[in-house]
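Hi team,

Filling in the usual template for the complex we talked about on Friday. All components are listed, including any nucleic acid strands or ligand strings, so the model treats them as one assembly.

SUBMITTER: L.P.
PURPOSE: interface mapping
COMPONENTS: two
RESIDUES: 229
SEQUENCES:
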Amino acid sequence: ETGVTQSPTHLIKTRGQQVTLRCSSQSGHNTVSWYQQALGQGPQFIFQYYREEENGRGNFPPRFSGLQFPNYSSELNVNALELDDSALYLCASSPGLADGAYEQYFGPGTRLTVT
Amino acid sequence: AQKITQTQPGMFVQEKEAVTLDCTYDTSDQSYGLFWYKQPSSGEMIFLIYQGSYDEQNATEGRYSLNFQKARKSANLVISASQLGDSAMYFCAMREEFRNKFYFGSGTKLNVKP
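RESULT (copied from the run log):
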């Protein structure tokens, strides 16, 4: 039991719509990362937030954005959804990657389907 | 070039035997970290082991050890005494510390036979 939760579990959206995915980190974890995992592939790093500021970003367009809140929750927002955005979205929290703590605890993921 | 390469899409191992999962990486950074994760069919990603680029000793965590060969840029995972519950996808990953970016490989599906 890692203590990282994500909502919703599954989601179906139409191309062009916007979606917000939510993650609740373990208490005390000030670092959260988001990943996109297409079926049969490894996760791809979207971005990381540390103490409510973006602290690293992968090769994803600006329509992927995020927020981190003081209560250890965070959001991933995706605008103008495309069919290729269909994937499992994982969040992972850490006590402080920026502080040298390297272990990330992953949530169960949100399965997004874009039709 | 791929940042993380896992050349074994699938592997079989007999229960109680040891198995090595291969991983090579590509970075020009001096400071980086290497990780292995396990993803069972249920989907959750489980952290197994970590190796820092400056660590001189190979990391070990119970039945898991990381065979780190820096000059060859390889970070193979060794699982000793395989168990049926080890059947899962295994991902090698790297964090480039300066840019704070993470990269995952395409994974190796391990099947442990009774």
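MY TAKE: The radius of gyration of chain A is 13 Å. The interface with chain B takes residues 2, 33, 35, 41-45, 48, 55-58, 88, 90, 92, 97-98, 102-109 of chain A (CB under 8 Å).

Thanks, L.
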